[in-house]
Amino acid sequence: MNLTIREFSSSSDDFRSELDSLLAWDSVSDARVQKTVADIVEQVRLKGDDAVIEFTNRFDRRHVASSSELEISREELALAKGRVSPELVASLEAAAKRVYDYHERQKQPSWQYQEESGTILGQKVTPLDRVGVYVPGGKAAYPSSVLMNVMPAKVAGVGEIIMVVPTPDGVVNDIVLAAAYIAGVDRVFTIGGAQAVAALAYGTETVPKVDKIVGPGNIYVATAKKMVFGVVGIDMIAGPSEILVVCDGKTDPDWIAMDLFSQAEHDEDAQSILISPDLVFIKNVKTAMERLIDAQSRKDIIKASLEGRGAFIHVKNMDEAMDIANIVAAEHLELSIDEPEKWVEKIRHAGAIFMGRHTPEALGDYCAGPNHVLPTSGTARFSSPLGVYDFQKRSSLIYCSPEGASELAKIASPLARGESLEAHAMSAEYRILKDS
Question: What is the DSSP letter of 229?
Answer without folding.
Answer: B
